[in-house]
């Protein structure tokens, strides 16, 4: 006989469902700013943060399969926003490097995102923002770990570290 869900289970399901619905804006295939999708911008941002981004590690960072990574990176390379280069440490490995045009697009998208981030932040009382953001980090980490998605990132780190 299946267990009946508790009221807390129902609340958690509603929260996860609402979170998934609200994050759809970040999962769209259409360009949202400067001709890149949200996920493509994440790739550009990772390239800025890491300098050179190992292609073999990117699918893990994005928590997508290799073919999806290839599909996301290809237009960025074709637009000369990223350059594919052989690794200086391992001649078999491919790394992605940000181009000057990629840096310009990255900066332009941050301009678009600044308005979006501000629109989010003003809807959270200032005295509660730190608490809310920490709670979201904690919930995201728990959700990620419970789902078995080993490549979950919280502020560029694995949730447990």
How are the SSEs placed, and which strands pair?
Layout lengths: L6 H16 L15 H13 L1 E3 H8 L3 H13 L3 E5 L7 E5 L1 H22 L7 H19 L14
Antiparallel strand pairs: 1-3, 2-3
Helix pairs in contact: 2-5
Descriptive overview:
- The protein has one domain: Orthogonal Bundle (Arc Repressor Mutant, subunit A), CATH 1.10.10.
- The protein is built from six helices and three strands, in the order H-H-E-H-H-E-E-H-H.
- A three-stranded antiparallel beta sheet has the order 1-3-2.
- It is globular.
- A hairpin with a 7-residue loop joins strand 2 and strand 3.
- The chain has 161 residues and is mainly α.
Can you give keywords for this protein?
single chain, 161 residues, mainly alpha, Arc Repressor Mutant, subunit A, three-stranded antiparallel sheet, 6 helices, globular
Brief summary of the model shown:
The relative contact order is 0.10. 57% of the residues lie in helices and 8% in strands. The chain has one domain (28-142): Arc Repressor Mutant, subunit A.
